[in-house]
Amino acid sequence: MRATPPPITPAPIAWPDAARQTAFAHWLAALTAEHGLDSSTLAPASADASFRRYLRIQGRQGSFIVMDAPPPQEDVRAFVRVASMLQQAGLNAPRVLAAEPELGFLLLSDLGQQVYLDVLKAASASEADALMRDALLALVQFQCQVDASQLPPFDDKLLADELALFPQWCVQREFGVTWTVAEQQTWDRTCRLLIDSALAQPQVAVHADWMPRNLMRMGPTPDGPSGSNPGILDFQDAVRGPISYDLASMLRDAFISWPEDQELDWAVRWWQQARSASLPVDADFGEFWRALEWMGLQRHLKVMGIFCRLKHRDGKDRYAQDLPRFFAYATRVALRYGPLKPLLKLLEPLSGREVTAGFTF
Length: 361
Hints:
The chain is an alpha+beta fold. It is about 50% helix and about 15% strand.
């Protein structure tokens, strides 16, 4: 007879201080009876680039997710508000089952463990295409059904603040480079071009991180949107902004890249669906593609700054390993459009081999 293996004991949950651990224990205890929670099953579910983290706990009817978002660094009220908007739009987002905003604790329904990014990396071409098409359909639904007027604006100041992360954290901190007056002027002109392009686009609801790491592949369920692809996470920073932003995030991701002909195929499919849904998309696909590429460049410069900040300020080195991918994205766009070509002189001293040899997507 084969011996029964011992039960798996979840790893202990580390807390920054005893007071927060005690507050969490009291909060969880108050929910235990209602949801049949078993505190002994509490285990890490996933980490976040922010101060948030997620824990998984078993209950009477399956598993749940706990969000631990410590104030004042995080504010869960935006997550609760946007989650409700997504539910009302018929999209597959976690349900907020209990909330303690003052402490930064949420109990959420569990969308499972099949992250789009992991599935896409192992998928066949046809499987990846099907998943991406699901994500594009959901994006159109998001843009049509979520009321953008209820979201904060992705305005001139926010766009500029995001771009400022690149010289501060990537150029100066990561590479130790100080720009000359002329180089700073080149940067300022480029930023103005990118900001003006973004602000000129039709404004819709923007998730702001619609990418494979924040989407979940869902298994079959009996009814309702809970079985539809994708499950949507990390939406608390949603804004009212440029219509191309989320599509650019999905097609030119931080952690997985596609050949450009595949990007174009998916972009055309989204564009056709958006027009059929009466979204205010440019009737000229070529002009829309230009706006998307410029929007993607703004995002990629911002993300390079964020990844370097995570490394130098927060001790999270792994994100900076993907800088070559971002330099390749940025270089490709700057090479393609005359007004953006001066940016190349700022990128080349930093990107080195990747720009010279080319990054293989």
